[in-house]
Amino acid sequence: MSSRGSFQSSRRRTRTTQVSTVGEDSASEEEEDLVEEPPDIIETRPDDPWDDEMSDAMPHQQANEEEEDEDEPVSETTLNSLIRELKWKYARVENPQNKQLDSTMQRFYDGPQGLRHGIAEPFTTPFDCFEHVSGVDRTLIARLAAGSNDYFHRFIKIDLDRNNRWHGVRWEDISIEEMYRFLGIMLKISMFPVDDGGYEAYFRKENKYISPGGGAQPMEIYGSSDWAHQYMTLSRFKQIRGAFHPEDKSVGLGGDKCYQLRHLINSFNAASSRTFHVPRDLAFDEGGVGCRSRYCPVRQYNKDKPQKFRVDFFICSCARTYQILHLDVYQGRNGNNVGIHDDLVDLPTTQKAVANAAYSLKLHQSHTGARHISMDNRYRCPELAVMLREKCKLYSTGTCRTNRKGWKEAELDLKKTNSNRGTSILAYDDQNRVTICQWVDSKVVNVVSTLNDASMKNVQRQVGSNKETFECPAVLVEYQEDMGAIDRSDQMRGHEGGFSQKAHFKKWYKKSYLAIVDCWLLNSLIAWNLSCGDAALHRRRLKRQQFYQYIAQSLLNFKDTVANPVAAVVVREATQYQFADGARSRLPQKASRANTRCSVCRLEQQWVKSLGEKGMTSDVATCSDCGVSAHAVVLTDSNRQIHQLHQFRGLSCFQIMHSVEGYQLWKRTTKGRNSFEPSYTHPIRLQLRQFHNLPPERAGKRKRDNAEGNDEYFGNEDGDG
């Protein structure tokens, strides 16, 4: 049975019997790559050799008791059972010269690359680019400051004296401006390291003196005074660093091990999707940040990495320009399937990670052409190759372990001991349209591809002191060209600056949080340089150090024009519906009409005409999902009473409409011209009418009928509410 037929016919099946759990010796079970603690003995499988120049694949390690890819019993109608029903029958490919084995190859995507239309025009400076592209704007910083203040009052204040002195000074709640400056100090410290006394060295107000003793006079070290004291005292820096806390425990009640990072990850993926086109060539691999905390529930050990203990990120990026398109954090088996598409919950862990990235990029709904993705042998197997092609129009190439289901060792039996360098074997399954091949370099390389290109290319390899030319399968050359994208982005994040590079925290999630912000910083740099390709914008490409220095100084110089503090519970509720999940994000976009009015400000103006319409159409944005129109900036001179309510103080109108109470005040609907209707009986609406000395109102029959049964949120058109 062909793969296409099996995928189509299986949708009509109704069997719900359970299949047994695959044992440890099953040929289809994925082996554990990483373990929580370093094992006493780490065995390297002799049949999985690899050339360091061709990949950084990890050797096989003994699995711990929390086997990451052990399959659970699943229904036979699930996607996992479909790929397990595939039958494999390979035939050797003889004389593989300029031969395309698959005559049903789909047309590849040839549309626009890089930045989406209209992204580059709104920002004029690198800092504007950082806020606009990455989403690290005032809203996110306000959420971070509010969470840190909440953490101090709940867990730190109880151990202080009655004067609330901490690090020698009295505590004051962290303002948004202070959080900006704190992040600016962290970024600038990483670019100008001073290995002399820790953080204190950056806050030194006077030159340092060195006294050698023995009668010698102390020596003043000119230029040793530093810069950080101009923006913040050392005591205040230590306070903010100690209270730094992204999220409250209440957001982690769903079993998410990394709930501290989830909002930031969802924001990151939404911003990347809004900013960049999904290109033709993709790469998937793991990135990460060092972490030695034994309290980290997702810490991994890998002796072959520079940082042997770390938190892993699953990263899907562009293979040509290196921007990160999708990011998720490794959680082991992730039994709660946090952030995973419903169709993929039964897949093994690493296959689930790749497929979820494709689904999050909406490739399963794309009709613009096929794409290609490269991955290494941690994720690669023939089953995944078929699934990605059939479900997501995603052709793939990657190295593969010989114990994967679908790999036939009988057809491919090359060994380094009995084969010359440059020797290759190709085999093709014409039912599933999958090619497997082996190529001998300094070790034997195993490759699986659905490109099904049997042609050969010449490559140069270093043999002793000389470079020699060998024939190599074209699919392996394609893999090698694409696979370095993740490593390149890791190198760019790991050298010469970054929020997490010089960060030292006891809590594991703090450095991991800043590592994700570093990914945002990298995407912003790439977006800025891509925008320089438009000659009409008159911009200059910047090197990484130049861009990072500009961002750091902009953070240090930030001035907050909104004086009202924002409570932690308010800012959490204000952003609850903006990033409810990774697949559905509500982002402010440019309004389709220049005269679009803010629905929040219009609410009271409909009742009291004397409030006027000044500023109702300026800085108005439309939600990318529900179509509501509202101010995307905080209004500092508003004469509306709704902005004075304690639950909305310090929030923009866009945030008000996506808060918990605002979401109920403007109910989304699919009927009529508007995508949202006001609730005439909501307590906030009644409170506002009472303030203006107006009686309660009652909706007409048509509006009452439209509101009934439309409490859920499905609107697509603009409306004024």
Structural class comes to: alpha+beta
Helical content, roughly? Answer: 25-40%
Gap between N and C termini, in Å? Answer: 55 Å
Number of domains: 3
Major beta-sheet overview: 10 strands, mixed
* Count of DSSP strands: 21
Low-confidence stretches: 8-77, 580-584, 701-721
Radius of gyration, CA atoms, in whole angstroms: 29 Å
Number of helices: 18
The overall pLDDT, averaged over residues, is 81
Please tell me what the overall shape is. globular
Commentary on this structure:
This protein folds into 3 domains: 3-109 and 257-494, no CATH class; 126-250 and 498-505 and 530-556, no CATH class; 586-707, no CATH class. It has 18 helices and 21 strands. The chain has helices at residues 3-9, 79-84, 126-134, 138-156, 176-191, 234-243, 259-275, 349-360, 382-392, 474-494, 508-531, 544-556, 568-574, 599-605, 653-657, 660-665, 683-691, 701-707, and strands spanning 91-92, 165-166, 169-170, 208-210, 219-221, 281-290, 299-301, 309-318, 324-329, 371-375, 394-399, 424-429, 434-440, 444-449, 456-463, 466-473, 588-590, 620-623, 629-631, 666-668, 676-678. The strands form 6 sheets. Strands 1, 6, 7, 8, 9, 10, 11, 12, 13 and 14 form a 10-stranded mixed β-sheet that branches. Strands 17-18-19 form a 3-stranded antiparallel β-sheet. A two-stranded antiparallel sheet has the order 2-3. Strand 13 and strand 14 form a beta hairpin. It is globular.
